[in-house]
Design brief:
Aspartate Aminotransferase, domain 1, alpha/beta, Aspartate Aminotransferase, domain 2, 13 helices, 40% helix, 4-stranded antiparallel β-sheet, globular, 7-stranded mixed β-sheet
């Protein structure tokens, strides 16, 4: 049904009330029952997000000369990221609107590098594992680049198959840290070796893991090198609004050198309005997303991030042990914030629907049918309730539950 624009304005109290009424059907993410879409680091971080965003919500990242404050904050945030991700001297990056934006700009840079620097002519392609994010397909659809997806081995990229699939027209190979469907870190070291040996552009999609993996490693986690520590990595994407706990939409895209990043930049001079230069896909960039990212990262610092991410991994380990006691199999060896688990004798999609009845809104993986959790610090407070409800849901869909429900009730 089409709603006409009101003839006269409506007062803010009435509008606010109507908006909250609309939200009655939304998931209750502040209660800790949502494990997808929202990254809940607690009320204090949420307050910093909102107030910092509001301070610069009208400013425009398109105009660094007009708003040097935003330019300074963006440069500092990029510096924070490069410091965490072993960016070498001369590495650079930018804040984007999200992971899709970051990935699109990395693909664009790799394409232009192949055309202008390497002289690759004719149809181009990228090679990536089946688990890589569809944002790569979207970017390639925009640029008419062939996508060659390769089979997985133990839910991970298979470097040997990717090597056999790549050819002289391959402008990029991709590894994920971690991949979204399974939450597992691809063998980035082997992909780096391949990239160096064949002079291929390796992009690491760390949209999910870029701002959690370094801190999990600091906390003692056995995280293999996945970033610019590896010589074959030329670009990397990492979302601030995921495990950086910053306001949406904010991501970062990084390049090993300013020379590589230059292939991303749009610079148009032949226009009556003057020269137009944009580093990312967007023209206007909301100042609030930049300022909120800067504020949250400074608010948490290394100590704060380590504490928040310790809660995430603690929740993941507790839930993993609990669902295994219920007869589920955890897929692979999760190390960060995503956990995926399945049972061959249970319809996991039906199980998801039963859990939805008790207020849980999580993800699913379809190959194999599994429950998919993307955990936040808040989930450390509700693991017992979740496991009890999984045990209850098992009984409802015909699976056998153990005494775990009583233990967590």
């Amino acid at each position: 049904m089409r709603h006409p624009l009101p003839e006269t304005g409506v007062g803010w109290p009435q509008l606010r009330s109507q908006m909250l009424e609309y939200a009655q059907g939304d998931v209750r993410w502040r209660d800790g029952k949502t494990a997808v879409y929202v990254f809940n680091a607690g009320a204090q971080v949420e307050q910093v997000q909102k107030e910092a965003y509001a301070l610069f919500q009208s400013e425009n990242g398109l105009g660094p000369a007009a708003f040097p404050s935003l330019k300074r904050m963006e440069e500092e945030v990029v510096g924070f990221g490069l410091g965490l991700l072993h960016g070498p001297e001369g590495a650079n990056g930018a804040i984007t609107s999200g992971g899709t934006d970051s990935i699109t700009m990395a693909v664009k840079a790799a394409r232009d590098f192949a055309r202008k620097q390497k002289g690759v002519a004719g149809p181009l392609n990228i090679v990536l594992p089946r688990s890589a994010h569809p944002a790569f397909d979207k970017a390639c659809a925009l640029m008419e680049i062939e996508v060659r997806r390769t089979p997985l081995r133990d839910y991970l990229a298979d470097p040997a198959v990717m090597a056999a699939t790549a050819d002289a027209a391959t402008v990029m190979i991709v590894g994920s840290a971690p991949n979204f469907p399974y939450g597992l870190i691809d063998p980035i070291g082997a992909l780096s070796d391949l990239a160096v040996e064949r002079d291929l552009w390796l992009h690491v999609d760390a949209c999910v893991g870029g701002y959690i993996a370094p801190f999990v490693r600091m906390n003692g986690g056995d995280i293999a090198p996945f970033d610019f520590e590896l010589p074959g990595v030329r670009s990397l994407s990492a979302d601030l609004h995921k495990y950086g706990y910053c306001a949406k939409g904010a991501s970062t895209v990084f390049f090993r050198s300013a020379e590589l990043m230059a292939f991303m930049t749009f610079d148009f001079r032949d226009w009556p309005g003057g020269r137009m230069v944009t580093p990312t896909l967007a023209g206007t960039r909301p100042g609030g997303a930049i300022s909120a990212a800067w504020a949250v990262m400074n608010f948490l610092g290394v100590e704060g991030y380590r504490a928040k991410h310790a809660l995430v991994t603690e929740a993941r380990e507790t839930i993993a042990a609990g669902v295994e006691a219920l007869g589920f199999t955890v897929l692979g060896r999760p190390q960060l914030g995503i956990l995926v688990f399945t049972r061959a004798d249970v319809d996991c999609l039906a199980l998801w629907a039963k859990l939805r009845e008790r207020g849980w809104f999580t993800g699913v993986t379809t190959e194999p049918k599994s429950l998919h959790l993307m955990l936040s610090p808040v989930h450390a407070q509700v693991v017992g309730e979740y496991l009890a409800d999984v045990a209850w849901a098992l009984g409802e869909v015909g699976g056998s539950a153990t005494k775990v429900e009583a233990r967590y009730s």
